[in-house]
Amino acid sequence: MSITGKILINGQWVKGADSEFNAANPATGASSAEKFSNADLAQVDEAVTLASAAFDTFSQYSDKQKATLLRTIAEELEAIRPAIVERGTWETALPEMRINGELGRTIGQLNMFATLLEKGDWKRPVIDLAQPDRQPLAKPDLRLTQVPLGPVVVFSASNFPLAFSVAGGDTASALAAGCPVIVKTHGAHPGTSELVAGAILRAIETCGAPKAIFAMLHGSGRIIGTALVKHPKVKAVGFTGSIAGGRALYDVAVSRPEPIPFFGELGSTNPVYLLAKSLEDTAEQIAESFLGSLMMGVGQFCTSPGMLIAVKGPAFDRLVATLAEKAPVLGAGSMLTAGICASYNKLCAERDALPSLKAIAKGTAGDSAASQAQVALFSVDATDYLANQDLEEEVFGPSTLVIACNDEAQMLEVAASMKGHLTGAIFAEEADQAAAAKLLPILQQRIGRVLFNGYGTGVELSSAMSHGGPYPSSSASQTTSVGTRAIERFTRPLCYQNTPDALLPVELKNANPNGIMRLVNDQWSDKAIG
Amino acid sequence: MSITGKILINGQWVKGADSEFNAANPATGASSAEKFSNADLAQVDEAVTLASAAFDTFSQYSDKQKATLLRTIAEELEAIRPAIVERGTWETALPEMRINGELGRTIGQLNMFATLLEKGDWKRPVIDLAQPDRQPLAKPDLRLTQVPLGPVVVFSASNFPLAFSVAGGDTASALAAGCPVIVKTHGAHPGTSELVAGAILRAIETCGAPKAIFAMLHGSGRIIGTALVKHPKVKAVGFTGSIAGGRALYDVAVSRPEPIPFFGELGSTNPVYLLAKSLEDTAEQIAESFLGSLMMGVGQFCTSPGMLIAVKGPAFDRLVATLAEKAPVLGAGSMLTAGICASYNKLCAERDALPSLKAIAKGTAGDSAASQAQVALFSVDATDYLANQDLEEEVFGPSTLVIACNDEAQMLEVAASMKGHLTGAIFAEEADQAAAAKLLPILQQRIGRVLFNGYGTGVELSSAMSHGGPYPSSSASQTTSVGTRAIERFTRPLCYQNTPDALLPVELKNANPNGIMRLVNDQWSDKAIG
Fold first, then answer.
1. Cis before residue A472, ω within 30 degrees of 0?
2. What distance in Å separates the CA atoms of residue B491 and residue B508, rounded to the nearest whole number?
3. Which residues are within 8 A (CB) of B19 and not within 5 positions of it... i.e. 6 or more apart?
4. What integer pLDDT is reported at residue A363 of this predicted model?
């Protein structure tokens, strides 16, 4: 499929009126044949203004209409799978199997929200019936539902060119909620972005939806990104990326005359706690499975395990010995961009220079011209770790810090010293449950997803998933960016009081035509009223 | 009951280490016999640090334990009803019946959250069972619940000395969630605050709860309020008050190294739309019921109707004539403080001076020494209204602007020009439903509660209530400060993956011991698993 390098506004491919750039293959350093054009500020205003006008129509779409749109986008993506995989692997250096899998995940997300919409109870309908005879005052009829916020700006991620990018989870959940979406692409995969945006546009055309409910703009985060977040008609932002970039845009969102929610999934180091019996019995297996998780996507998962915490002793020594034995033969891998690779190497060099850190092992040295990074494992004494809070910060890439504790009490102290993380893992056997019970309340205050005997790198699409956590892992720790509940980010409650049945939205009507579960007079019911 | 003027930290009444002040009776100008002492910054730090330490215990409280605490607070308040009513009326100039009713509401809120906790399903438990045989990868067991955020600062409101103050909705919902509360009192009713705080303390002692889960501090919003919001161990803020004051504290909350949610219920003018047939049939009745709603609490309700919008014509003239006839005989009433009254009179004088506004009527002139305000009704042509956006702003007190539209299209234009409001009312008969159907999608984007044939001044305690709305009516439009769902503001999701049943919280255990409704594999079920 041919790539035009254009941006998409109101269903039209147009040349961005600002500067141009080429895509790059990080594994070869090659530049793309095509030039991509960045939007200027007038085009930002045009895209948002038209999206806001389209919201008047789109906000009234039924759940069924939105479900059809999402399923059609999924079909259009499947129809161009070979082109997406070819371009995606070229732009990101991620292996074909990974891009194929990530496209499957992206399609799965769209269909997951379609299924949620078809089920029809996602707006959490609540009905409290009138009590006209209540004394001293009659109780009115009250009915609660959720309504969409308005145009949403979505910032694509570098590390998931499909699942957290143009048609990724933020876009799928915002469209499912009834919000138009303006995507600010990531410069690391503009051609992939264009292909995906084309699929969305064809679905919009097929479904006859307002064309301005989706726009795709190339441009710098600092200029175009800031302008999008500042625009008065934008009502929410979805973001996946670094703490520095995310915080800068968060600050813009909350400084507006009308502040708006900023759903930023930022950085996380994802501590892994190894409890005594589990370590004793499986030190070698943990070392191997850990390296496998760490190397997924060359350590570029937001849930990549960046800290291993255990108590010193013979089992701990076996763990470190196995890491030291297995890591050096791990091959280097190309990172997503030359800049990300350079940043990773710089952070590893800084850790190399810290006197309190010991290098456990490094992987095979990579080809720097191919932006290749190697695994880098360090260890630190818990006492030194507790004295240097910077060590908690994420090193984006395949590096991990092993924290050696004197005893269980110091392990709990390390846990209690931490800020927010997306995931926290505990390796525990039955004999470790008492220790786990002490660790859990500490993690409860700091972690978005607690998991046992595994790593956080697989983030299921599920109604029970939460992908988020206390700051800085998320700028909106009360929400999730993965799973069905992600849709709630783009809605707010609306209460109807004494409203004629004919004017109520379908989920609140007496007849309950879709037979959905509702809270009626504080009792769950899927029946009609009256 | 004797008033000490002290502040409450860790279950101890201590003298605030900063300046002192007297309470005032706004109706007489009299000063209280007692002196009240303001907390200093060291006391702020002490209260928050101890609350944070107490959170480790309190966050593990069962729903039943928290319910007992809330019910005991309610009982302790009921036990000192005469003292609260006496002091409350003296400090606020609100009539005894109102303070009695508001105390009933406050007790009702505490018991409402206790009932919610006893029901046990408020954490929205979701369970997706493992699929060990799924290809290519096994699906893990995932279980989702909500956990409390940590210490919450609650700012008392001037206009609801009980229901939105020390033991008000924010405190009740935060404690219900499992969060310690530090109350920053409002200077307009410090004695009432002390009585209420004493009731809370006695309940904490009776229940054997950690004493530091509740503190009460007097002090200035600018100094003590800012220090509380800035404190790193504070994790959320509840606020009811003015846009200016709320926005200043919001800015502090979001500028912290770790930003925290700021649940601010700010200003609202609560437009009332009168549709043609309803106006035609009931112009006189609407005028009378409207004045009744406007005069509730001397117009000092956040849901007070500050705008009446209708289409010009004979029925509109009858409405205005009735207002002009009935308003002048309405008696003046003392406002909550001399400062609030002065501000109201200043804003009314500014409106008097605007050439585009016509005065419809004023109520009986009041005694300015008694901080008495009179009703002030103005009218404006919709064309002039649309040209002057400042007219949308709240005038805190019994003033209303009647907006005269040329036709239905202009009424829709006025509706579409507005920002966020807590409530929006529509007066409509069956023949008005087509017009209402055009108005509703516009209000959907701007209003927290839409109501028919009534006013927003009654805010029911109900699971279907939403009290909030787009900015500036709320700084957190995705939440409500009234009704059971207010508890969700002080929690965040936590996902458990592959967690041993023995370590799961009760709402996620296989046995479902409390028989609560859960979403299991995307189906609603109140049964046990397996």
1. yes
2. 16
3. B37, B38
4. 87
- The burial of A481, by beta-carbon neighbours within 10 Å (0-12 exposed, 13-18 middle, 19 or more buried), is given as buried
- Best residue in B466, B514, B519 to probe A by mutation, most A CBs within 10 Å? B466
Fold exhibited by the domain B271-452: Aldehyde Dehydrogenase; Chain A, domain 2 (3.40.309)
pLDDT (tens digit, 9 = 90+) per residue, A184-204? 999 999 999 999 999 999 999
**Which of A478, A482, A487, A498 should be substituted to probe chain B, the one whose Cβ sees the most B Cβ atoms within 10 Å?**
A478
DSSP assignment of B78-102 equals: HHTHHHHHHHHHHHH---HHHHHHH
Domain extents in chain B: 38-121+147-266+480-489, 271-452
Task: Report cis status (omega within 30 of 0) of the bond before B472.
Answer: yes
ipTM for the assembly: 0.97
Q: Which pLDDT does position A296 carry in this prediction?
A: 86
Catalytic residue among A102, A194, A265, A394: A265
Q: What number does CATH give the domain B38-121+147-266+480-489? A: 3.40.605.10
Mean pLDDT of A444-449: 97
* DSSP state string for A327-390: GGGSPPEE-SSHHHHHHHHHHHHHHHH-TTEEEEEE-----GGGTEE--EEEEEEHHHHHH-GG
Q: What is the DSSP string of A42-62?
A: HHHHHHHHHHHHHHHHHTT--
* C-alpha to C-alpha distance for A415 and A425, rounded to whole angstroms: 11
Residue A507: other Cβ atoms inside 10 A: 22
More confident residue, A2 or A354: A354
Q: What's the rounded Cα separation, in Å, for the pair B74 and B199?
A: 8
Cα of B463 to nearest chain A Cα, Å: 7
Q: What angle do CA A97, A219, A50 make, to 5 degrees?
A: 105
Residues 122-141 of B with CB under 8 A from A: 126-128, 137, 139-140
- Between CA B28 and CA B371 the distance in angstroms is 8
What span, in angstroms and rounded, lies between the C-alpha atoms of B290 and B427? 11
> Active-site residue among A102, A179, A194, A302?
A302
Domain A49-266+480-489 falls under CATH 3.40.605.10: yes
Q: Nearest-CA neighbor of B236 among B174, B184, B186?
A: B174
3-state DSSP assignment of residue B187: coil
pLDDT score of A267 = 87
Q: How many CB atoms lie within 10 A of CB A387?
A: 11
User: 3-class SS at B363?
Assistant: coil
Q: Rounded CA gap, B314 and A316, in Å?
A: 88
| CA A198 remoteness from chain centre | 22
Indicate the pairing of strand B421-427 with strand B271-274: parallel
**Mean pLDDT for chain A overall:** 96
| Gap between the Cα atoms of A451 and A465, Å rounded | 12
Sites in chain B below the pLDDT cut of 70: none
**For A450, which of B430, B448, B496 is closest by C-beta distance?**
B496
- In angstroms, what separates the C-alpha of A494 from chain B's closest C-alpha? 5
Q: Report the residue from A60, A419, A450 with minimal CB separation from B497.
A: A450
Q: Tokens 């529509």: give the residue.
A: B426
Q: If DSSP states are collapsed to H, E and C, what string results for B378-440? A: EEEEHHHHHHCHHHHCCCCCCEEEEEEECCHHHHHHHHHHCCCEEEEEEECCHHHHHHHHHHH
